[in-house]
Amino acid sequence: MKFYDSFGMNPRIVRFFLLEKGLELDREEVDLFTMENRREPHLSRNPSGQTPVLELDDGTCLAETGAICEYLEEKRPQPPLIGSTAEERAVTRMWWRRVEINICLPMLYGFYFGEGLEIFRERTHCLPEAAEGMKERGRKGMQWLDPLLEDGKWLAGNRFTVADICLYCYIDALKGIGQPIPAGCSKLDAWFTRVGLRPAAGPSVSQELPIGLTG
Ligand SMILES: N[C@@H](CCC(=O)N[C@@H](CS)C(=O)NCC(=O)O)C(=O)O
Question: Are residues 107 and 69 both part of a single domain?
Answer without folding.
Answer: no
